[in-house]
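Summary for the steering committee. The consortium agreed at its last meeting that each partner would contribute one worked example illustrating the joint modelling workflow. Our contribution is presented below. We chose a case with several input lines so that the handling of multiple components could be demonstrated. No manual editing was applied between input and output; the record is shown as generated.
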Amino acid sequence: MALRHPKAEEIRLEDVLTALSNPTRLKVVRTLAEVGPTPCGSLLEGVPKSTLTHHWRVLREGGLIWQEAVGREYTLTLRRDDLERRFPGLLPSVLRAAGTR
Amino acid sequence: MALRHPKAEEIRLEDVLTALSNPTRLKVVRTLAEVGPTPCGSLLEGVPKSTLTHHWRVLREGGLIWQEAVGREYTLTLRRDDLERRFPGLLPSVLRAAGTR
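What follows is the complete predicted structure of the assembly.
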């Protein structure tokens, strides 16, 4: 079953900000921005599966990431271009802010 | 009794993003950005007082606004310079994003 992802033009500002307002999710977004597409399993080790599932859903439904099955696992990819087109400069400014804490 | 406001250097990214992730609070921030300091009472007419109090607290404790008693009422002022120093470009990019919805 394919997971639900919003189209680029359906991405809502409040959902993007909500997704980024959680430090754990922001950490995932920063990692994806730095290293590119990453298998779910190698992000956030030691976090309970139900918590992970929740975070992936908030990020996916907010339009921040693609979550796609690759073999038996999901790979997460940051929707950098979609976000940039939808809300120019927003993601870079949040990533920069996160880097200066 | 003076209300609690974080110092500029104590403002946390997650609190700023949480404050901005609510459409009602974002609307208040946009108004303050456009018109400058504004009495509480003339923002968000028709919203229950307890809801207003909640929104002002989230904005104030997140470091987005000064909430200061002026006569018998509070005036809200956007902490634009503090936010810009703390997280350069973040607020302008969110305001721009909010304007393009």
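The first strand of chain A starts at residue 38 and ends at 39. The longest helix of chain A spans residues 23-35.
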